[in-house]
Specification:
Blueprint: H1 2-17, E1 21-27, E2 37-40, E3 46-48, E4 54-57, E5 63-70, E6 77-83, E7 88-89, E8 92-94, H2 112-122, H3 124-128, E9 133-147, E10 152-153, E11 156-157, E12 171-185, E13 189-199, E14 222-225, E15 227-230, E16 241-250, E17 256-264, E18 273-279, E19 285-293, H4 294-297, E20 302-314, E21 319-333, E22 336-351, E23 363-367, H5 376-382, H6 389-405, H7 408-418, H8 425-428, E24 430-434, E25 439-443, E26 451-453, E27 457-470, E28 475-486, E29 491-501, E30 509-520, H9 529-539, E31 546-561, E32 564-577, E33 613-625, E34 629-633, E35 636-640, E36 647-656, E37 665-677, E38 683-694, E39 714-715, E40 737-745, H10 757-760, E41 763-773, E42 776-791, E43 794-805, E44 809-818
Parallel strand pairs: 1-7, 1-8, 13-23, 23-34, 39-44
Antiparallel strand pairs: 1-4, 2-3, 2-5, 5-6, 9-12, 9-22, 10-11, 12-13, 14-15, 16-17, 17-18, 18-19, 19-20, 20-21, 21-22, 24-25, 25-27, 26-27, 27-28, 28-29, 29-30, 30-31, 31-32, 32-33, 33-36, 34-35, 36-37, 37-38, 38-40, 40-41, 41-42, 42-43, 43-44
Helix pairs in contact: 1-6
């Protein structure tokens, strides 16, 4: 303990020796005030106080300065000082702001708050457009704590979370800082160059605290925080908020500031609750203190998020600009509780510096060289918000722990404990790890992978793997093997594959694989093994249809340039039809028998749907994400698809050199998919596919284009890639086809307005699905459903009514869905 205190004290001395203007801000009760804005008058050179009320203001030149201390709920204090040497200590005491309604003339015919908000909405665009572009400095610090962490979660050991937990299993589990340069061009171009990045306990780590993720502009109609959240001055805000004028006060320039409380009209709407401060006559935002629940944001693990923003006025530019932002949150799920805060400081603005679109590329975040290698001297001179004692302690503790944990002795010791075989490994599988040399090997559990089908009967898999990572996991090599045995057909099958990942930028993968396997005719695997097992044994419905494939294949994928990725494969296959070998059922029905394994004819027992043959297969797919932005981290490239444009997928498939000439073919494919936020009306998504076979009149049924059907009435996976009332192989084709899916999630927009129903917090979803092939009448499905069904934070259920048509009404059904299924 003495050693730790000495380290903290030494750190504080070092920190203070680099301070310029430093001090503590308190209230009139001598209590420290956190997150006070401190800046030089008429500039955007500033900082905020930390949780302990301490601050540091980076001024390097001596002279006369007027320092402004500004904090919501307190009177602004200005102090003029003459500084001849550094460090210079300047403390401040803030008094409560006098908020009054005495000077407000109340119009009995209209709420005065509504008048103010209406003016702010009318001037919203004008005020927003005053800043067409800017350059600024940006600082961010993120802190996440955990309290009373459980020893295990769902049977898995939690551990000490990188040394973050103390004896009470509480502590800091994430602490990170970034210092950046920002460039912005309206309406939505934001570029960030990260000059320095620091992660507690990881001297090779790169912080993900960036300006892009916290760019919450309340002048927009919505801001994205999990959900699209409607702002208090959005064009349609009166449909979502009630307003009350809590009072007025004057800022240090004599501007009258209106303090307005915004409350939701409906409990679960995607809106804030809290205060927005509006400058009289200018109708700009002075500050905001806004809360939103996890339910409203559609982030179940979060209890509440609080966003606090403060703005400052530049007389030279006649602009109010954001100078600080805090995001506080509390979370709790599965016995884990905690809180956190992300602090951001904007400073040294240069407004409208003449930036154009040519100054921006699709790279929106980049890092300076050695950004994560800055020493404590650098951080102590550049950090605008001083560390708290808790944060200093965390850095010291985890940096010390890291040195120990990176040693071979420690890693071998931990591996020695974790590598011991335990009884539970029989069910969950066993993994052996060598952390120091970055490799792992293991086997899966045969018990976990047991399933049933009418061809193999009961069958089990046992898999093994070996993975070696290089360059801090930027490259890796893995080899996997799997053995499957069917107890009814008495057949042993197996596969082996090897994959190498070349880098973490364009992420090229090369895979060589081969073996003998049973697989569904539809390679999308429309029915899972577990579902097929249940329906077979309990209902005598063997929906899964499989054949045997003996193959050798090479595949390669790579992003050739930003937004353009290819996947290609070339392989040899020997395909063989399989037949039922068992009629086992736990609840057999007298008038029912299993269907055949022939997807073309359920009564064709012993009849093969295709002849045994060999064939070469070539596939080439190109995925195009238009206008894709990306983050260039030193350890990898992270893509951000642009929702304003669809994703287009082009494909070509060729079967050639078949032992049966008629089985050779060519197919071209096209797919376009997109998801769009429709403001406060929810989210619309669509998925359209089309294709055409050439020379495919007599090809094997294996190579037909199959469509994802569903006969179980249990929904799983994406609802935008399946016909939930269509038999699995009823519409398969070897000709042209057009497949369309669309779905709109109202996200509480409609049900949130219905009394009583709005308390349930369900989402209404409507969908339409269509399929057209030359040999069949057009098929359509229409759905209406409820999502977000559940209790408290556990909302994983969905219920849909499906109605299908094909030359008239065909059938209807209720579909029960599990999101985690």
């Amino acid at each position: 303990m003495k050693q730790k205190l000495l380290l903290v004290f030494t750190f504080l001395i070092t920190f203070q020796s680099f301070s310029q203007i430093q001090g503590t801000v308190k209230d009139n009760k001598d209590e420290p005030l956190p997150f006070v804005n401190i800046y030089i008058e008429n500039t955007y050179t500033g900082t905020t106080s930390n949780e302990d009320g301490n601050y540091e203001l980076g001024i390097s030149k001596s002279g006369d300065y007027t320092i402004v201390f500004q904090f919501l709920g307190y009177k602004t204090v200005k102090k003029t000082v003459t500084i001849s040497s550094f460090p210079y200590t300047l403390d401040a005491t803030l008094l409560d702001e006098e908020i009054s309604l005495n000077e407000v003339v109340v119009n009995a015919e209209e709420n005065p708050a509504n008048i103010i908000i209406r003016q702010a909405i009318a001037k919203r665009k004008e005020n927003q457009n005053k800043i067409q572009s800017y350059k600024s400095d940006f600082y961010s610090r993120g802190l996440i704590r955990i309290k009373d962490a459980p020893e295990k979660i769902l049977g898995a050991e939690v551990g000490d979370l990188g040394g973050g937990l103390d004896s009470t299993r509480s502590g800091v589990i994430y602490l990170s800082e970034t210092v950046s340069k920002l460039e912005f061009l309206r309406p939505n171009k934001l570029k960030e160059k990260i000059l320095a990045s620091k992660v507690s306990g990881d001297d090779n780590g790169f912080s993900f605290n960036n300006a892009i993720d916290v760019d919450y502009d309340l002048y927009n109609n919505t801001v994205e925080i999990g959900n699209q959240i409607i702002t208090p001055i959005a064009n349609n805000a009166f449909g979502y908020y009630r307003y009350k004028l809590e009072g007025i006060f004057y800022d240090d320039r004599g501007n009258l500031i209106n303090k307005i409380k915004a409350t939701p009209r409906r409990e679960n709407d995607p809106v804030f609750e809290g205060y927005i401060y509006i400058v009289e006559d200018q109708w700009t935002i002075y500050a905001a203190e806004l809360d939103i629940t996890g339910t409203q944001a559609r982030i179940p693990a979060v209890d509440k998020i609080t966003i606090t923003q403060n703005f400052s006025f530049s007389e030279q530019d006649n602009i109010w600009a954001k100078i600080s932002q805090n995001i506080d949150f509390k979370y709790g799920i599965l016995g884990i509780k905690g809180d956190g805060r992300f602090t951001a400081v904007y400073s040294d603005y240069k407004f409208n510096p003449g930036l154009t679109r040519k100054d921006f590329t699709r790279e929106i975040v980049s890092f300076a060289e050695a950004a994560n290698k800055k020493d404590s001297t650098f951080w102590n001179t550049i950090r605008p918000v001083p560390l708290t004692v808790e944060e200093i302690t965390d850095y010291i503790k985890k940096d010390s722990i890291q040195i120990v944990r990176e040693s071979k002795t420690y890693k071998d010791s931990v591996d020695g404990v974790n590598n011991k075989f335990k009884l539970g490994d029989i069910v969950g599988g066993y993994t052996y790890t060598n952390s120091y040399e970055n490799w792992r090997a293991g086997i899966s559990s045969p018990i976990e992978a047991i399933s049933f089908n009418t061809v193999q009967g009961w069958n089990a898999n046992i898999g093994a793997f070996y993975t070696k990572s290089y360059d801090d996991f930027e490259r890796f090599f893995t080899i996997r093997g799997n053995i499957n045995y069917g107890f009814s057909d008495d057949r042993l099958r197996g596969t082996l594959s090897a994959t190498y990942k070349f880098n973490n930028k364009s992420r090229p993968f090369l895979t060589l694989s081969g073996g003998v396997v049973t697989q569904q005719f539809n390679t999308s695997n429309p029915i899972s093994k577990s579902l097929n097992t249940g329906f077979s044994l309990f209902s005598e419905e063997n929906y899964m249809k499989i054949f045997e494939n003996s193959y050798v294949q090479a595949s390669y994928s790579n992003e050739l340039f930003n937004g353009f990725r290819i996947n290609t494969s070339l392989g040899y296959q020997r395909r063989k039809a399989l037949f039922n070998t068992t009629d086992q059922a736990w609840y057999p029905k007298d008038d029912k028998v299993y269907t055949s394994n022939n997807p073309l004819d359920e009564t064709a027992y012993g009849v093969a749907p295709f002849d045994t043959h060999n064939i070469m297969k070539f596939n080439l797919t190109a995925r195009i994400n238009f206008a894709q932005n990306y983050l260039s981290y030193p350890d990898g490239k992270y893509n951000i698809p642009n929702s304003k444009y669809p994703t287009v997928i082009l494909g070509y498939e060729k079967g050639f050199a078949s032992s049966i000439d008629d089985y050779n073919f060519d197919q071209v494919k096209f797919r376009v998919t997109q998801g769009l936020n429709v403001g406060d009306k929810g989210r619309f998504r669509y998925n359209i596919k089309a294709g055409k076979f050439f020379g495919g009149d007599d090809i094997a049924f294996v190579d037909y284009q199959h469509f994802n059907g569903n006969q179980t009435h249990i929904g799983s996976g994406s609802y935008l890639n399946v016909f939930n009332n269509l038999p699995y192989y009823a519409a398969s084709t070897n000709d042209s086809y057009l497949e369309m899916h669309a779905e709109h999630d109202f996200n509480g927009f409609l049900l949130g307005r219905v009394p009583l129903l709005k308390k349930l917090n369900f989402n209404l979803i409507v969908g339409a699905h269509a399929l057209s092939t030359p040999d069949n009448k057009p098929y359509q499905e229409y759905t209406i459903g409820l999502d977000n069904i559940g209790w408290g934070k556990f909302r994983f259920l969905r219920l849909d009514y499906v109605r299908s048509y094909q030359g008239g009404f065909q059938s209807d059904a209720f579909l029960f869905g599990l999101k985690f299924f």
